[in-house]
Design goal:
With 53 residues, the protein is mainly α. The chain contains 2 helices and 2 strands, in the order E-H-E-H.
Length: 53
């Protein structure tokens, strides 16, 4: 039986801490919710992710 999260293709964010807590990156082809308080960088993360393609 595959281990949860091991067979999912990931997109590396380029942010080491985020990739670490996301077990290697953001899952490709899946919806990902980014939450946080005002001013925590959610919009900056989303825009940077879009710019990098």
């Amino acid at each position: 039986m595959p281990t949860a999260g091991k067979d999912i293709e990931k997109l590396v964010s380029g942010i080491p801490g985020l990739d670490h807590i996301a077990s290697g990156g953001i899952p490709r082809g899946r919806t990902t919710l980014v939450s946080g308080t005002a001013g925590s960088g959610k919009t900056v993360l989303a825009v940077q992710f879009l710019v990098e393609g």
